[in-house]
């Protein structure tokens, strides 16, 4: 299975250490104790789950640019502990929408693409990014 992690930091070196995400605040419904690295089974799921992603993604791109580094984790190549959306759905309210997976181990990922987002739709009903169109700017070595 392939899992994806989208970073807005194009110079990210691919070393991931589990932590509680910065966007988890006291009072949120999201679990705030388990160190993890968040992935999705699609790039659309990742972009939906970015803080202010989904509905706010177009505004984010307007002010910050449309390029994202997408790390690709082939779960057949890495020996890491993974929790599925079904396992975390009670801890992350939108886990089934974003298809969020948690990786619980430190991992270095060398496979990535840098994408330039051209267009997408935000589905108000499903609360998901859909019909994502992008160009691949560069890849290594995937």
Describe the 3D structure.
The chain has 142 residues and is α+β, with helices and mostly antiparallel strands. It has one domain (2-140). The chain contains four helices and nine strands. The protein has helices spanning 43-49, 57-64, 85-88, 95-98; strands at residues 2-7, 15-16, 37-40, 67-74, 82-83, 100-103, 107-108, 112-123, 128-140. The strands form three sheets. A four-stranded antiparallel beta sheet has the order 1-4-8-9. A three-stranded antiparallel beta sheet has the order 3-6-5. The longest helix has 8 residues, at 57-64. The two termini are 14 Å apart. The relative contact order is 0.25. The model has no long low-confidence stretch (mean pLDDT 92).
Give the end-to-end Cα distance, rounded to a whole number of Å: 14 Å
Mean pLDDT: 92
Number of helices: 4
Per DSSP, what share of the residues sits in E-state strands of 2 or more residues? 35-45%
Give the H and E element order.
EEEHHEEHHEEEE
E-strand count = 9
Largest sheet: 4 strands, antiparallel
Flag low-confidence runs.
none
- Structural class comes to alpha+beta
Helix coverage percent: 10-25%
For the largest sheet, list the strands in their spatial order.
1-4-8-9
The count of domains is 1
User: Per the principal axes of the C-alpha atoms, what is the gross shape?
Assistant: globular
């Amino acid at each position: 299975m392939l899992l994806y992690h989208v970073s807005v930091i194009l110079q990210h070196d691919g070393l991931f250490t589990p932590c509680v995400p910065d966007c988890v605040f006291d009072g949120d419904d999201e679990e705030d104790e388990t160190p993890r690295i968040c992935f999705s089974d699609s790039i659309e799921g990742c972009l939906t789950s970015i803080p202010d992603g989904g509905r706010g993604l177009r505004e984010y791109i307007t002010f910050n640019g449309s390029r994202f580094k997408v790390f690709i984790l082939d779960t057949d190549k890495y020996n890491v502990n993974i929790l599925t959306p079904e396992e975390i759905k009670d801890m992350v309210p939108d886990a089934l929408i974003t298809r969020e997976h948690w990786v619980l181990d430190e991992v270095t990922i060398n496979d990535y693409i840098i994408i330039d987002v051209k267009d997408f739709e935000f589905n108000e009903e499903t609360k998901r990014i859909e019909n994502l169109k992008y160009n691949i700017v560069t890849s290594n070595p995937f």
